[in-house]
Amino acid sequence: MTVLKSTGQTENISANRALWAGIIFSFLFSLLIWVIRPWLPQIDFLPDQGASWYYWQLPEQTVMGQITAWSFYFAHQAFTWGTIYVAQRQGLKYTKGVHRINVIALLGTAFFISLHLLQTAVWYDGLAQDTSIWSSQWSVIIMLVFILHMENQRRGIFWGKKIGFLTETGRFLRKYHGYIFAWGIVYTFWYHPMENTLGHVVGFFYMFLLMTQGTLMFTRAHVNKYWTFVLEIMVLFHGTTVAIEQIFTQGYDIWPMFLFGFAGIFIITQMHGLGLKNWQKWGFLGLYIVGVLVMYSDRGWVRLEEVARIPIIEYASVFVGAILIWIGMKITSYFRPKGDTGKVASAD
Predict the structure, then answer these.
(1) Any idea which of 1-5, 184-188, 194-198, 221-225 has the lowest mean pLDDT?
(2) What sign does the CA torsion over 221, 150, 203, 238 have?
(3) In this structure, how many other beta carbons lie within 10 angstroms of the beta carbon of residue 85?
(4) Chain-centroid distance, C-alpha 52
(5) Residue 315, exposed/middle/buried by CB under 10 A (0-12, 13-18, 19+)?
(6) Do 273 and 154 form a contact (C-beta atoms < 8 A)?
(7) CA 144, CA 140: separation in Å to the nearest integer?
(8) CB of 166 within 8 A of CB of 68?
(9) Residues 40-56: pLDDT tens digits?
(10) What is the dihedral of CA 264, 136, 121, 57, to 10 degrees?
(11) How many CB atoms lie within 10 A of CB 286?
C-alpha cells in the first residue's frame, strides 16, 4: 500500500498513474454528463440571437442560479490558485511521483467538477447570464497563445525557428502561467452549464484534462511533451466538433476554418517539438496542402482566407502579448525593492 511521506516533498505514487487516473475520471464523468442530462429538468431556451448570443441559459435569471454559479466559481478559483501558491512556496522539485499538494489538488478538482453537475441539475445557469460569450472564448485563446509563447525556447515558433525577443517574456510566463491558465480554465468551466450536446461533452472532457494537467504541477507528467501536445491539439477536435454542430443548430458553415486553422498551427509550430524526422514533417505538410486543395476546390477559392484566420490571430497575439508583458515587467522592476529578484519556483 502506498503511503504519503510526512515531508510532503516527494511521494511514492507514480505521477503517470495519477495522470491516467485523471484521464479515466475525465472520460467517465463526461460520459455521466451525456447519460444523466436527459433525466434532468429540460429548459425552454430563448431563440438563438446570433454569434454573440449564448444559447444555453435560462430565459430569465434566478437569484440562486447566479449566487451558486458565482460563489462556486470563486471558491474553485481560490482553491486552484491556493494550491499553485503553496506548491511554489514549498520549493518543490520535479519528480516521477506526486507531491502531497498534487493529491489535494486532484481530490479538490474532482469535488468541484461534481459540484458543477449538481449546480446544473438544480439551478442550471452558469456565468453566461452575466458575461459575454467572447470572454469565455478568449480565456481559452489566451491560454493557447501563451503556450506558443512559452514553448518558443524548446520548439521555436515558425518551422522550428526560435524568436529571441520572446525569451525573457517566455521565462516570465513559465514562472506565472499556472495562475493565468487556472483562471482561463476555471472561468470557462463555470461559464457553461453541463449540457450533453456533443460540443459541450467534448469541451468538458477537454477542460477536465486541462484541470488534471494543472493538478500535476512539479511532476514529470506535467512536462511530458507528448502529453502536453495532446492537450494543445485537442482544441482542433473540440473547435471543429462545435463548428460542425452549428451547421445544424445555427446554420453556420465555418468548420473548415477551425480544422485547417488549428491544423496549420500544428504544421507551423507544434509538430517541431515532437522529435519528428524531416521526411515526416514534410509529409504532414504535404497532407495539409492536399487537404486544403481538395476542400476549397469544392468550397470555393474565395473562402480560402478562412485557413489563415486562426493562425494570424494566434501568432499576432503572441507578439502583442510579449510586448505588453515586457512593458509590464519593466514598469514593475522600478518598484521592486532592492535585492528582491522576484524569483519564485516555476510550475512549467
Answers:
(1) 1-5
(2) negative
(3) 14
(4) 21
(5) middle
(6) yes
(7) 6
(8) no
(9) 878 888 887 877 788 89
(10) -110
(11) 10
Give the number of other Cβ atoms within 10 Å of residue 300's Cβ. Answer: 9
**C-alpha cell read off for 203:** 469541451
**Rg (alpha carbons) of the chain, rounded to whole number:** 21
Residue with cell 460542425: 244
All residues at 6 or more sequence positions from 5 whose CB lies less than 8 Å from its CB, including other chains: 11, 12
List Cβ neighbours of 269 (8 Å cut-off, separation of 6 or more). 148, 151, 155, 156, 157, 158
Contacts of 171 (CB under 8 A, 6+ apart): none
pLDDT of amino acid 86 = 95
Contact 213, 224 (CB under 8 A): no
Distance CA 48, CA 321 (A): 33
Q: Which residues contact 168 (CB under 8 A, 6 or more apart)?
A: 326, 329
Q: What digits encode the pLDDT tens for the residues 108-136?
A: 999 999 999 999 999 999 999 999 989 99
Report the amino acid identity of residue 202. V
Predicted confidence at residue 39, as pLDDT, reads 87
For residue 50, with 0-12 CB atoms within 10 Å meaning exposed, 13-18 middle and 19 or more buried, which class applies? exposed
| pTM reported for the whole predicted model | 0.89
Q: Which residue has the cell 515558425?
A: 158
